[in-house]
Design a protein that fits this description.
Order of helices and strands of chain A: HHHHHEEEHEHEHEHEHEHEHEEHEHEEEE
CATH topology of the largest domain in chain A: Aldehyde Dehydrogenase, Chain A, domain 1
Oligomer: homodimer
CATH class of the largest domain in chain A: Alpha Beta
Number of strands of chain A: 16
Largest sheet of chain A: 7 strands, parallel
CATH architecture of the largest domain in chain A: 3-Layer(aba) Sandwich
Shape of chain A: globular
Radius of gyration of chain A: 24 Å
Distance between the termini of chain A: 60 Å
CATH superfamily of the largest domain in chain A: Aldehyde Dehydrogenase, Chain A, domain 1
Structural class of chain A: alpha/beta
Chain lengths: ~425, ~425
């Protein structure tokens, strides 16, 4: 069953046609749709789990690693968690209609800059059915239509979940095409999606570097790339070494496979001898593979540290592996981070207000931390309620992408006949 | 004298190296540099005019149309106007450091979202020397470095102006490389500029469609495109016809060569007979070539109106030419605008609050007007003090691009040892 470009255009056109209604729907209807999704997830849970069981029983699923099978698998508890997440989004403040700027010009024109939906958001994602619900909830709340392009491994699960969402939209008086699930056609269909200028207002890829690179080569619609997270912890000469130890271990070990985990530890030479033996031993005990420069090896005590390659400083390991370097001072630390980092999240551990200020001003990243773990960069942790990813771009959205980042603005200007000289 | 990629990389690297100092420079220094530019423009005016005279005397300048020669020509008065513009920018509010969001999380983390400079902005522009000063002033004020890439026709003028700016930066304690003028290499050098990932944070082309298309094919750095302005005036059935006449004529005739000029007039069928004969006669008398649909031709009276082609509805004439159509109702007008418009500026003339609201909500454009000319979409008119162009993108910046649009944000998070569970 192949998806031709015409099918993709038809899917995108359907979402676009619904966008005008979605954009002006009262918040009561949008929240009503979210409440209906939560209810239907509960009442339809048997159908959803049955569809998921079919995906899991498909012989193609045998190719998946245990970790991927786990991500694909739904359970009663996981469906309940999805419903709770949707209600959480419903409880958030409406981002639409916010007046971003307002003034009366000298000629009497009343100028307002108003927050409005983007239109149609497309999300391409891997075999994680919960993304279907998470993303649909965020786009419905923010007045957008969404074109969902999930993995074929999760086709039946996504289908069951998309049916729930579309039924919920209709029950709330909104067009079902506010959420369109595009299926079939394999990765080639991506090119068809990424070139729908005028129909897709924003494309968000949620997946690995392969997906991103495939899109970069062909996309003509606006794309928000969530780049890699090569995050750093820098222990300053005036650090509290107990905080330094605790933050370093947490930033590396608590969840090494995510983008806000630390990949490099930088230690000021003044505290290297005092900090390194203890923290390296603790990291090694937690199963972390360590690579370091010469000064680190000298201060490693009994812990095994391999010699770091040039490449290690630029690598997002996404694993229990950490690169460690000793730096001369704050300035060298900032230079290292700005040269090798990915502009995601970087932390300094220091009791010096002066050093904290320089680090926060000069490190060029979406999030800079003083005396806290890099692991907090996350829409939920930041109090945004939910997120669709973390942007390391500087344009439009930097950091967690929540409801506001799914909007644009429009100048609304009212006059009574004004013309320009 | 060819610019190799290495030269371009050297130019961009110089601007990037200065960016860290520019970004954290106190507002006193940034405004001090602007004041110094204004002074030096005055004291160096003879040198500037001499350099400009050389550009104009160059045999290559013979290829230029009279309009382009006019844009290239500097005079004492025009240099004074540039200086006044710089002081105007100095008087604007500092966009940097603004707290966009602030909260204390439950775990005690102090979270602030702060407005910060982008880093290095590159501007590619045509043979208009004043752009050198206008853009440098905006980027200095917003804490950015700038890489200026002007036309070779204006090379000597731009060189004299860039020297003024660099001297002003140094006199204010800022690095001269906060403003770098890149010259030589012809249009091929553009590709070298547009692929400086990691050095150029934003590229803004100021020029025609040819320049934009050349960049679209090669750019890997973020680009802000100022798209075409296919702007509409829609006269609703409940319009004040005198306002309709005045706004239509102003939107078309006052300056037909700019992006906020109207290109299409839509007239509700209920008022076509009452409005069209008079307004078409006035437009024709002002030298406007008119094309229209069948119903327009029927209501044209003595005025000559040619039959509009399908293409006319999609064309930004940038000239004394207007496409005119009669529409059934508000809904058809909105459909027409959203299908054919470029999302720049569109106006409704109506005394109906209900119609005004629907139009403003449903027309998908950077600026929507009620009872006012589309010609007001402009950074100066909007009270932003200055602009570097008008964006029709939905991401990052929509509408006039002023100081705020030359910034990004950074999350600054302070803790006292917080780690994530």
């Amino acid at each position: 069953m192949e998806v031709t470009l015409t099918d993709m255009t038809a899917d995108c056109s359907a979402a676009k046609a619904a966008a005008r209604t979605m954009a002006t729907a009262p918040i009561e209807n949008r929240n009503g749709a979210l409440a209906a999704i939560a209810e239907l997830l509960s009442s339809e849970v048997e159908n959803i789990l049955a569809a998921n069981a079919e995906d899991l029983a498909d012989e193609r699923a045998r190719d998946l690693s245990p970790a991927l099978v786990d991500r694909l698998t739904l359970s009663r508890q996981r469906v309940e968690a999805m419903a709770a997440g949707v209600l959480e989004v419903a409880s958030l403040e409406d981002p639409i209609g916010e007046i971003l700027d307002s003034r009366t010009l000298q000629n009497g024109l009343d100028l307002k800059k108003v927050r409005v939906p983007l239109g149609v958001v497309a999300v391409v994602y891997e075999a994680r059915p919960n993304v279907t619900i998470d993303c649909a909830a965020l786009t419905i709340k923010s007045g957008n239509s969404i074109l969902l392009r999930g993995s074929s491994y999760a086709e039946r699960s996504n289908g069951a979940l998309a049916r729930v969402v579309r039924e919920a939209l209709e029950s709330a008086g909104l067009p079902a095409d506010g959420v369109v699930l595009s299926t079939g056609g394999g990765r080639e269909a991506l090119g068809g999606l990424a070139t729908q200028d005028g129909l897709i207002d924003l494309l968000i890829p949620r997946g690995g570097e392969g997906l991103k690179n495939a899109l970069k080569a062909v996309a003509t619609v606006p794309v928000l790339y969530a780049a890699a997270g090569n995050c750093h912890v820098y222990v300053h000469s005036e650090a509290d070494l107990e905080k330094a130890r605790s933050i370093t271990v947490n930033a590396k070990v608590s969840r090494p496979g995510v983008c806000n985990a630390a990949e490099t530890l930088l230690v000021d030479q003044e505290v290297a001898a005092a900090l390194l033996p203890k923290v390296l031993a603790e990291l090694a005990a937690a199963g972390v593979e360590l690579v370091g420069d010469e000064q680190v090896l000298e201060n490693a005590g009994d812990t095994e540290v391999k010699v770091a390659t040039d490449e290690d400083w630029d690598t997002e390991f996404l694993d229990l592996k950490l690169a460690v370097a000793v730096v001369d001072d704050l300035d060298q630390a900032v230079e290292h981070i700005n040269r090798h980092g990915s502009g995601h999240s970087d932390a300094i551990v220091t009791e010096s207000e002066q050093a904290a200020r320089v680090f926060m001003d000069d490190v060029d990243a979406a999030a800079v931390y003083v005396n806290a773990s890099t692991r907090f960069t996350d829409g939920f942790e930041f109090g945004m309620g939910a997120e669709i990813g973390v942007s390391t771009q500087k344009l439009h959205a930097r950091g967690p992408v929540g409801l506001r980042e799914l909007t644009t603005s429009k100048y609304m200007v009212r006059g009574d006949g004004q013309i320009r000289e």
